[in-house]
Amino acid sequence: MTTQAQREASIQPIRQWSPIWIVPLAAIGIGIWMLYYSYQNQGPVVTLIAPHAEGIVAGKTPVKSRSVDVGQVVSVALTADLKQVEMKVRMRPDTAPLLNAETQFWVVRPQVSRSGITGLTTLLSGAYIELQPGDSDRIVLHHNLLETPPVASAEAAGIRIRLRSEDTGVLSVGDPVLYRGYEVGTVEHSSFDMHDRHMLYQLFIRAPYDSLVTENVRFWQASGVSFELTPDGVRVDVASIASLISGGVSFDVLEGWPAGEPVPSETEFALFPNKNSMHDGMYSQYVEYLLFFEESVRGLKAGAPVEYRGVRVGTVVSVPFFFSMAHPLETSFDQGIPVLIRIETGRLYENISTEQVKQQLARGAEQGLRAILKTSSLLTGGLYIDLDMMDEPDISWQAMDYAGYAVLPTARGGLSNIEQKVLMALEKMIQLPVEPLLEEGTRTLAQATTAMAEMQQVMLQLEAYLAQPAMQQVPEQLNHSLQQLEQLLQSFGPESQTHQRLNSNLQQFEQLQRDLQPLLHTLNQRSNALIFQATPEADPEPRRARP
């Protein structure tokens, strides 16, 4: 037993540290250092909010800035209200300065727009998020993902201008901004103002062309080809090739106006529908008048000119105008169709006031000034209003106001005046005693019919008389008589003996008349000379001259 007990091992605790523990301790230290290094060297996490996550894949979709990877999408999830998408993006450590308040994010994918086709490289590599850094010093880690890419970067040199338009959908993001046909900027944003009910557009005009935007410039839609039919003829304006394809907006200084001072960024201008209409913005001082036309106003549109003997002095505002009228239909039935016009002081004389315009028009209305509808184009049937002095005005006119507007007298003119005169002539013809005239005409016609019947009977009798055999011999007898008459006339011709004898007898008769002349003279003086011998008288002697 002693031998067996001696063979059993004895267990004793180790009193020295084993070198084998170095390996796990080193591994733990390396792991802690790696975690610390990774935490210290990882970039910030940016939260992006978007309406949808089309084309975005967590752990795969990169974030790029100028084609350089600066981060990656790490998670995609719905927001708490389940109406939007929240994306977490892990950025690189050295990209923290890029994340400021003006930084913009958007998704780059294939897109076809007016400005062309973009994002074709994503057909193979997939969509990615583009980062455009801003110029702010405030760091922001929460951004909204833009639906469309921005036109110009925040640090781009230039000026941003706001345009206001009453028409919707006339411009789109990416449309060019032109100055005399040369592209100097781009439309970068559009929105609709619900309160004022008009469109707002933001334009970016890059440097150095931003100095062209001054206080006297006007902006209008560049539709490429502008076709306008005016009383002077057909006007066609062709813009640049860019505007022919995509439209856009043009601007320039009004002809004859100075350029003015440069404007600051975010200045607001009005957007006119075409180049010709931008002159309307020049006339902000005007006087409104109400006209009542008895004839049809078909063809008269808002914006039509108001002229005075061929010179434009105003503009038609509304056709018809029923605003602020209690009974518009009764008004149109009693007085005519109401039309509101503006007499613009800037179109008259320089530095003339609205009060002077009112006084001159009131004086002109008293002297015969009337508003007349005239045709501006026979092809389109368009009308305009012409102010002119009438030769025979209605002297019963008195100045009056209606619905808060001064009223100008009107008169018929042109075709309408001719039509009125024709109607008046027809009314006079209708008032003529037509029935007695018709009865008298009927009796006259009956008498004429009776006379014609009697004449027809006479003609029949005459034809029957001429058809008798005796009447058939009348032409032969008449011909024989004419022959005898001709022979008789020939016997009295100059060469005939009868004519010679008659001429000789006439000569003898003249000689006898001359011979009897003294006898007749004597008998005229002494009627008894045939019975008593006449005493011969002495020859007459001329008287002597006085001493």
From TrEMBL:
Sorted UniProt keywords: Cell inner membrane, Cell membrane, Membrane, Transmembrane, Transmembrane helix
Record-annotated membrane-spanning stretches: 20-39
Protein name per UniProt: Intermembrane transport protein PqiB
Mce/MlaD domain sequence ranges: 43-134, 158-218, 287-388
InterPro entries: Mce/MlaD, PqiA-PqiB_transport
PANTHER family, A to Z: INTERMEMBRANE TRANSPORT PROTEIN PQIB, INTERMEMBRANE TRANSPORT PROTEIN PQIB-RELATED
Compartment list: Cell inner membrane
Pfam families the record matches: MlaD
Main location: membrane
Source organism per UniProt: Alkalimonas mucilaginosa
Keyword field contains Cell membrane: yes
Record keyword rRNA processing present: no
Taxonomic lineage: Bacteria, Pseudomonadati, Pseudomonadota, Gammaproteobacteria, Alkalimonas
Residue ranges that the Swiss-Prot or TrEMBL entry lists as coiled coil: none
